[in-house]
Design brief:
Helix content: under 10%
Order of helices and strands: EEEEEEEEEEE
Number of helices: 0
Strand content: over 45%
Radius of gyration: 13 Å
């Protein structure tokens, strides 16, 4: 059983930065870890994913602004968010699959374990 806990959300102004953390209990070092976000009335949206070896994939909307990294020794994944804009507002979730994936997925349905979410609010 895997438990994920996000932290680092908050209220910032447009153009500022935040770093989110996701700390996992259980064995997650051999699987990809993904970030999603959600706003009321919309489906959960893919943000980015990092493989067990450190390769990354990002949604077009955050490409070049967000960076995912992993510290396997700490069982922690980070989402560095730069140049935030109001459209980045939402609840951010980290996620892990139950089993290793053939390749990191952008689909929320590939992930079985989810954190509780952390609110990110970007004001203009």
């Amino acid at each position: 059983q895997v438990q994920l806990v996000e932290s680092g959300g908050g209220l910032v102004q447009a153009g500022e930065s935040l770093r989110l953390s996701c700390t996992a209990s259980g064995r997650t070092t051999s699987v990809p870890m993904a970030w999603f976000r959600q706003v009321p009335g919309k489906e959960r949206e893919f943000v980015g994913v990092i493989s067990w070896s450190g390769s990354t994939d990002y949604a077009d909307s955050v490409q070049g602004r967000f960076t995912i990294s992993r510290d396997n020794a700490k069982n922690t994944v980070y989402l560095q968010m730069n140049t935030l804009n109001p459209e980045d507002t939402g609840v951010y979730y980290c996620a892990a699959p139950r089993f290793p994936l053939q390749r990191p997925s952008r689909s929320q349905y590939a992930y079985a374990y989810w954190g509780q979410g952390t609110q990110v609010t970007v004001s203009s």
